[in-house]
């Protein structure tokens, strides 16, 4: 191949500056998987059954507008059907937002230690990322609101709870933020983990604020709480005009038929999902207490993972891997001394604690 030819020099500069997303370790049999914030109990049995049924018609295109799922979810959320947009994972939704509202000369604001897909979505649309310094590892909302005064800013991304730190924001904090941000800026509140946060007294979803702030977009995922990460399904709730714009750039049939069927069943299995959330809350508390006893600081978390201070996180990660336990090093999130550890089943968490007790 000719040496002088350089593909990167041909790429959009905003793309050439990107690093690819680094996924957690692939699941292996016998490995305890605490790396990717999945539901350790898997999906509801009803969702699995629905997925199997849907797999009998693989030669047919899926319903391109996800009408059953749309009707059910709109009813549960008490929003209009035309406020919903479905995506191939909520990453797809983040990408749709970027493709509609960002591009050359346009900027997206997000925090330090924020989800790694925000710069990828922003820059792949040709936009510029502006990172605002974190405050005590969490969002500095007043500083982020101040950053949106720049007229080049069109989008701001805020995850609540945040990945990888687990921090959460109260509805009042979000409301004050929405009041401070001009309405020409789309405010994305990424609620990929909201189901786990609802047990915190000072957490509330931004959903009730949609009626008052037309520039608010809430994104959610079926990958975490619903245990359907492999099927790739996420959604946005927004003003209908924003949904209409996202629908213009959406790839046809971006949500597969198995995902749609499984999601419909999962949304109706409240008892199973409530049990998963309750177990997560118990285990999160237990792990935080045991980490404290080991002398490891954890960040407060409203999600299904904990950010744990390890000092030499690389060595701790290798030690855990040698015990067949996969967790997530987060140096690429600017947190080289921390590991992000998904809350597992009680047995998985015990194995993790036993391994860490031996390490220290
Ligand atoms: N937002 C946040 C904050 C996340 O942590 C994740 C998953 N890591 C996503 C969005 C994307 O999830 P998915 O594409 O699987 O729905």
From TrEMBL:
Q: Does the keyword Cell wall biogenesis/degradation apply?
A: no
Its protein name is Histidinol-phosphate aminotransferase
Question: What SUPFAM superfamilies does the database record attribute to this sequence?
Answer: PLP-dependent transferases
Spell out the reaction equation it catalyses.
Answer: L-histidinol phosphate + 2-oxoglutarate = 3-(imidazol-4-yl)-2-oxopropyl phosphate + L-glutamate
Q: Enumerate the Gene Ontology biological process terms.
A: L-histidine biosynthetic process
Cite the PROSITE patterns for this sequence: AA_TRANSFER_CLASS_1
Modification N6-(pyridoxal phosphate)lysine occurs at: 224
Q: Name one GO molecular function term.
A: pyridoxal phosphate binding
Organism of derivation: Spiribacter salilacus
Alphabetically sorted, this entry's keywords are: Amino-acid biosynthesis, Aminotransferase, Histidine biosynthesis, Pyridoxal phosphate, Transferase
Q: Which residues form the Aminotransferase class I/classII large domain?
A: 31-356
